[in-house]
């Protein structure tokens, strides 16, 4: 099966979505549906290594609205340029619905990471018939952890910092929150702000406010409240996962909390939050071992 992706376009009222198909959709069937790999706001470029380990299947990737090649149009584009556009997981779920329906193959299997995992939970709650098996890897749902008040306050502070000071200071706070080990202390908000330069980030504010993560998605994603009743009732075979090296970090703790809430075991994957990356964005995980574990999990839930 060809690993070269064919790019398709889906025109919606406020965005042009672009998605890639590796393989021939006619080769997909009920026993081997397309495997869709999604992140948010990470785009399709982040899944090149992982997709390469599934050359025996039809693989679909896409760029979420406002990222990569999925360009906003009309008032949505204007709002994004001004930093006032924000997308909820429900918005992304409807985009995913349209892409899956455009494939015309019936339900897909879905691997979803980080913000993509949150969007996958929204999709399954709203349209469970579109997904056969879903693996939600480290959804950073701040509401689900015991220290939710501190986590939600930290997310709001990151967004406010971006509006006030720009990308460097806000991204430094985001990274610090992402790698914080264990529950956030009550005094977390009072700690000195991290130095952007320590993370190789710009200190000067360039004046832009259209970053897909810091402006458009962070609050909608991290502050989202999943519909646990709908997820429990869904026909989708849901797996919630976290990386072995991520234990204690917010996204992994949230994944464990979601799994517990749904009465599911937490599936442990190799490596860390970006364990499937093979050098994309300068980050290295263990893509071969990660893909083997994903293949194992999908097979376990295929019957």
TrEMBL record:
InterPro entries listed in its UniProt record: AB_hydrolase_1, AB_hydrolase_fold
Single GO MF annotation: hydrolase activity
Domain of life according to the entry: Bacteria
Domain AB hydrolase-1: 47-143
Annotated keywords: Hydrolase
SUPFAM superfamilies, sorted: alpha/beta-Hydrolases (SSF53474)
Entry protein name: Alpha/beta hydrolase
Lineage: Bacteria, Bacillati, Actinomycetota, Actinomycetes, Kitasatosporales
């Amino acid at each position: 099966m060809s690993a070269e992706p064919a790019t398709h376009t889906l025109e919606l009222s406020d965005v042009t979505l672009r998605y890639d198909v590796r393989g021939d959709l006619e080769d997909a069937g009920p026993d081997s549906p397309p495997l869709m790999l999604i992140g948010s706001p990470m785009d399709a470029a982040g899944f090149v290594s992982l997709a390469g380990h599934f050359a025996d299947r039809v693989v679909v990737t896409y760029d979420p609205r406002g990222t990569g090649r999925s360009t906003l149009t009309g008032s949505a584009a204007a709002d994004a340029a001004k930093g006032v556009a924000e997308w909820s997981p429900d918005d992304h779920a409807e985009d995913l619905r349209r892409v899956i329906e455009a494939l015309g193959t019936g339900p897909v299997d879905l691997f979803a990471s980080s913000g993509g995992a949150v969007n996958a939970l929204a999709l399954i709650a709203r349209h469970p018939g579109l997904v056969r098996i879903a693996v939600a890897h480290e959804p950073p749902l701040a509401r689900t952890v015991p220290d939710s008040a501190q986590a939600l306050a930290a997310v709001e502070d990151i967004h406010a910092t971006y509006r006030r000071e720009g990308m460097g200071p806000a991204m430094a706070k985001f990274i610090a929150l992402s790698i914080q080990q264990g529950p956030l202390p009550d005094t977390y908000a009072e700690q000195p702000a991290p130095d952007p330069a320590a993370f190789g980030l710009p200190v000067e504010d360039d004046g832009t406010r259209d970053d897909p993560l810091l402006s458009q998605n962070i609050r909608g994603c991290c502050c989202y409240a999943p519909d646990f009743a709908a997820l429990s009732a869904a026909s989708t075979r849901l797996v919630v996962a976290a990386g072995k090296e991520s234990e204690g970090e917010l996204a992994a703790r949230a994944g464990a909390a979601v799994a517990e809430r749904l009465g599911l075991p937490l599936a442990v994957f190799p490596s860390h939050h970006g364990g499937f990356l093979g050098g994309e964005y300068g980050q290295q995980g263990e893509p071969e071992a990660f893909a083997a574990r994903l293949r194992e999990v999908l097979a376990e839930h295929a019957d």
